[in-house]
Each structure stands twice: as structure tokens, then as C-alpha cells.
Design goal:
Layout (H helix, E strand, L loop, with lengths): L1 H28 L1 H5 L9 H24 L2
Helix pairs in contact: 1-3
């Protein structure tokens, strides 16, 4: 039970970090695009979850490629 709780907590913490980093960096990097509503200043939990899955897939693919090239 402790392992499942740790995994869920780790996953939620990762989603929280994605939301926080987005809100912290994107408005500073692209202020005009945020003002014109071309880029969201904040993202929802659902969007952070989808972004987390995307990053996980990209990480898995690059790790597999690196291991095959050795």
C-alpha cells in the first residue's frame, strides 16, 4: 500500500510541477502571445496530465534509442 501511495503522490507532484513551471515561465517568455490569447498563461490539471504523458513517451523513446545504439 505504501508503494501505491508513493507512486500516486509522485505522479500528482509531477503534474503540479508542470502546472507551476508553465505559469512561471510561459508568460515571461511569450508575454505578447499571452496578452493576445495565443498561448494560455495557465493550464488546467487535465492539460498538465496530457503534457506529462507526452513527456513520458518522449523520454521513453529517447531512452530506448540510446540503449539500442550502444
Amino acid at each position: 500500500m505504501k508503494i501505491i501511495t508513493f507512486i500516486i503522490g509522485y505522479f500528482v507532484f509531477g503534474i503540479f510541477l508542470i502546472k507551476w513551471f508553465w505559469a512561471w515561465t510561459i508568460p515571461e517568455i511569450f508575454p505578447e502571445a499571452v496578452k493576445q490569447n495565443l498561448i494560455a498563461a495557465n493550464i488546467s490539471w487535465w492539460t498538465a496530465l496530457k503534457f506529462s504523458v507526452l513527456l513520458s513517451i518522449i523520454t521513453a523513446v529517447t531512452t530506448i534509442r540510446r540503449e539500442k545504439s550502444r
